[in-house]
Amino acid sequence: MTTGKQIVAEIGLLLYPDVQLAAVYGLTDLFRIAGEMSRERAGPGAPAIRVSHWRQAAHGVGVECVFDSHPGPAHDPSHLIAPPSLIMPAKMQPMNGLTTWLAERHGDGATLCSVCAGAFLLGEAGLLEGREATTHWAFAKELAARFPAAKVDSDRMVIDDGDLITAGGILAWTDLGLTLVERLLGPSVMLETARFLLVDPPGRTQQPYGHFVPRLDHGDAAILKVQHWLQASGARDHDVPALAKRAGLEERTFLRRFRKATGLRPTEYAQQIRIARAREALELSRRPVAQIAWDVGYEDASAFRKLFQRITGLAPADYRRRFGVAAA
Question: Where is the secretion signal located (predicted)?
Fold first, then answer.
């Protein structure tokens, strides 16, 4: 029952043939522990995460829920996780029912996540085209070969690309789980959960500045289509007439609906996407700031520096000194 708890999200875990059950039950426990930490801080009405387990229906059509941490309300998973597989990707069975459902849920605004070989399910759902993704280093070449339009980077443990989050190694479910806890319950609860579990927090989530988390569950399909395109393209082209055309709307209508759905104007939304990518580049590389500015879409490095400081509270060089993990 949900009495006394504020359910902030439902996270669905996929049960497929040869799935790593340690990850399924480990994530279930991690989210439960995070809920307990949240309750200790805020009392009985504290935010909590609902966890459900899903598998392909026995008759082969559709999916069915086989576990629910908070039974009662109708299901509406805002996040879905494809856990690791215990067998090599080439031997994984076809899962058309699950991958079709993943694509449908993504189209409805759900954030999709994967760990290790779970990224292949996102690829089969047609969701990795033009997107950055990671997987186990041993599977990276196969993922890139099977889905050539994907931008596979096996050097990174977690790639948070807004509506798609992928994690690398078979035990990277802890990194993914804590990343979601930080998103949904806040950094303090995430850190307390990590300490309790005696695991390191994800490096990119230790910083005191919040990451851009786009609103995707607003129900406006035309605007969601544009959001997905902006995220996939790095928001390099955010000309309003072109975005309105992509949405199939008149410009004034597009601007009104975009602001209502996302809370931001298109230019502000594009800036958030670009700065998020710049932050990641500063954390993980030694590229010059001017080069990073150019790579994320800014020709004027001075203007980029001012915008970066306005959004993050730090100049790019100071941000790198504080959070950079790349070798000098």
Answer: none
Q: What's the pTM?
A: 0.73
Catalytic annotation present for 116: yes
Which of the residues 116, 127, 133, 226 is marked catalytic?
116
Q: Is 233 exposed, middle or buried (0-12, 13-18, 19+ CB in 10 A)?
A: middle
CB 161 within 8 A of CB 211: no
Rounded distance between C-alpha atoms, residue 175 and residue 201, angstroms: 7
Residue identified by tokens 């690309």 is: 161
pLDDT (tens digit, 9 = 90+) per residue, 149-200?
A: 999 998 788 999 999 999 988 899 999 999 999 999 998 999 999 999 999 8
For 85-119, write each residue's pLDDT tens digit: 999 999 999 898 899 999 999 999 999 999 999 99
**HEC string of the chain?**
CCCCCEEEEEEEEEECCCECHHHHHHHHHHHHHHHHHHHHHHCCCCEEEEEEEEEECCCCCCEEEEEECCCCCCCCCCEEEECCECCCHHHCCCCHHHHHHHHHHHHCCCEEEEEHHHHHHHHHCCCCCCCEECCCHHHHHHHHHHCCCCEECCCCCEEECCCEEEECCCCCHHHHHHHHHHHHHCHHHHHHHHHHHCCCCCHHHCCCCCCCCCCCCCCCHHHHHHHHHHHHHCCCCCCHHHHHHHHCCCHHHHHHHHHHHHCCCHHHHHHHHHHHHHHHHHHHCCCCHHHHHHHCCCCCHHHHHHHHHHHHCCCHHHHHHHHCCCCC
| 327 pLDDT above the threshold of 70 | no
